[in-house]
Write a structure and sequence with these properties.
This protein is an all-alpha fold. The protein has 11 helices and no strands. Helix 5 packs parallel to helix 9 and helix 9 packs across helix 10. The protein is elongated and about 60 Å long. This is TetR family transcriptional regulator. Keywords: DNA-binding.
Length: 197
């Protein structure tokens, strides 16, 4: 199943830069970030190291590019949400759109889960944290009780970690994503009860 997913990703993505990202992420998941070399990535791609260097000089450059690709839809979502009313429906739409943005990023979040020390050491850790704080701010009310703030944080964490945590659960990946989304929506709904009249 994993190979067909990767094959689809390669066919869909097509260009060399994205093929390098896919192969590197696959090797990082199999062997770990520290144990994977640029030479191995080049060999798996059947290209020379010089061809790989044309796109990326280091493994860190590859990981940073993956995060930048994920950051773009996140930044667009944050910008979109900033101009919307702070209604429950808007907050639920933020969660839905974020779940969609994460759909193709599941391997990246698996990498993050399995290489937390590396992610902390790379320059991307702080910018990712800042985006997540912005997202939480869009989901919770400024004066929200601590429990409701926890619900909003947990909604986002469930979207991030859910696919990783459920990888050994039987079922179609898309159905599992929808189940995780449903839980996240329930948390955001519980954190934003209708105002008393």
């Amino acid at each position: 199943m994993k190979e067909s997913t990767m094959g689809t990703a390669h066919a869909r993505r097509g260009n060399t830069r994205q093929r390098i990202q896919d192969v590197a992420l696959d090797l990082f998941a199999q062997q770990g970030y520290e144990k994977t070399s640029l030479r191995e990535i080049a060999e798996r791609l059947e290209v020379t190291k010089a061809a790989l260097y044309y796109h990326f000089k280091t493994k860190e450059d590859i990981v940073i590019s993956l995060f930048e690709d994920l950051a773009r839809p996140c930044d667009e979502l944050i910008e979109w949400a900033a101009d919307r009313p702070r209604t429950l429906e808007t907050k639920k739409e933020i969660v839905r759109r974020y779940s969609e943005a994460l759909r193709d990023a599941a391997p990246l979040f698996r990498f993050m889960q399995e290489n937390q020390a590396t992610v902390r050491d790379l320059s991307i850790g702080e910018s990712f944290k800042a985006r997540m704080l912005s997202m939480v701010g869009l989901l919770k009310e400024p004066d929200a009780e601590l429990t409701d703030q926890a619900r909003c944080v947990t909604a986002l964490v469930s979207l991030h970690a859910g696919m990783f945590a459920m990888q050994n659960v039987e079922g179609d990946p898309e159905e599992k994503r929808k189940a995780i989304l449903e839980v996240a929506l329930e948390l955001v709904t519980a954190a934003n009860p209708p105002a008393a009249s």
